[in-house]
Amino acid sequence: MNNTGLVLEGGGSRGVYTAGVLRYLMEHEMYFPYVIGVSAGACHGSSYISRQIDRNKKVTIDYVDHPDYLSLRNWLTKRQLFGMDFIFDRLPNELVPFDFASFNKAPEEFVVVATDCRSGEPIFYDKSHYADDMLTLLRASSSLPFVAPVVNYQDRALMDGGISCPIPVKKSVEDGNKKNVVILTRNRGYFKKPQSFQGLLEKKYGQYPGLIQSIKQRHTEYNHTLQYLLEEEKKGNVFIISPTEKLKVGRVERNKTKLTNLYQQGYHDMQAQASSLQAFLA
Q1: Residue 35 near residue 8, CB atoms below 8 Å
Q2: For residue 111, which of 55, 210, 66, 177 has the smallest C-alpha distance?
Q3: What is residue 195's predicted lDDT score, i.e. its pLDDT?
Q4: How far is CA 14 from CA 41, 111, 275, in A?
Q5: What is the pLDDT of residue 76?
Q6: Would you state the pLDDT for residue 211?
Q7: How far apart are CA 5 and CA 24, in angstroms?
Q8: Model pTM?
Q9: Residue-by-residue DSSP string for 222-239
Q10: What percentage of the chain exceeds 90 in pLDDT?
Q11: Three-class SS of residue 186?
């Protein structure tokens, strides 16, 4: 697996698909030397690095009906659908403890992507330099406009990494990975459409013109990256894993049955492609 990256797309609740894929990889001791993730992908990737095989399922499915996790109450009281304090403080520090020791000593490089609100550019934070602040960076990478507040970190105002770099495969290539395994949370054939709430963007984030511009261009960046992935797949440089069945889970989902089914789909999709992946890595 030398010079091979694992690239994890975000997608909110759809990220349970990635969690299922990662569970299969963990069961079979398949750890990539370089992992880069955005938003939910970064969150699931962190538990992959820390070798906590059940943690992603517990966090994203077992606790999804907890009122502090995802609820209208969160929105009414804190203007955030997902309870960011609950998810990035109480869960990892108390309820479903994150194994910081194993994460820190793991040999794999791990990179989290966030968006700089002022410039609109992606910022890349690697484990080797930012391990102590990983929960803050995961939170920043997962902070979607309108549903979560801006995260201030080291003189930067940060939000969801998927805004500026939705599928960070090119960063993995820049970092020296000639081959990349990419886990997507959309069906093949999906292409993103332009955002339709530009007026609200100007009103809410007028002080961050870079963020606004990045959001406006997000569909173009996403679609160009998808096209790049398909071209690289044909060349044998990229291996894509994505949902084989029509998605029934959106970005925000509380139905445990739907979430569990998507988690299991990720596991079984990876299982079905295991031999192909081994051939790709050979």
Answers
A1: yes
A2: 177
A3: 76
A4: 10, 20, 25
A5: 63
A6: 96
A7: 17
A8: 0.95
A9: HHHHHHHHHHHHHHTSEE
A10: 86
A11: coil
Return the pLDDT at 54: 97
Distance separating alpha carbons of residues 153 and 151, to the nearest angstrom: 6
pLDDT tens digit string along 70-99? Answer: 766 766 676 666 789 999 999 999 999 999
Q: Which of 132, 211, 191, 166 is nearest to 37 (CA)?
A: 166
- CA 207 → CA 98, 150, 151, 160, 162, distances in Å? 35, 12, 15, 17, 20
* Identity of residue 123: I
Of 246, 217, 194, the closest CA to residue 14 belongs to 246
Amino acid at 177: N
**Segments of the chain with pLDDT less than 70:** 71-72, 74-76, 78-81
- Assigned token pair, 11: 């997608």
Question: Which amino acid, one-letter code, is at 89?
Answer: D
Give me the residue label for tokens 């791990």: 110
Long-range contacts of 84-90, Cβ-Cβ distance < 8 Å, separation of 24 or more: 84/139, 84/142, 84/143, 84/148, 84/149, 87/59, 87/139, 87/142, 88/135, 88/136, 88/138, 88/139, 88/142, 89/135
Which of 4, 1, 13 shows the shortest CA–CA distance to 262?
13
For the record, the structure tokens of 195 come out as: 């955002």
Burial 38-73, CB ≥16 within 10 A → b, else e: bbbbbbbbbbbbbebeebbbebbbbbbebebbbbee
- The pLDDT score that the predictor gives to residue 146 is 87
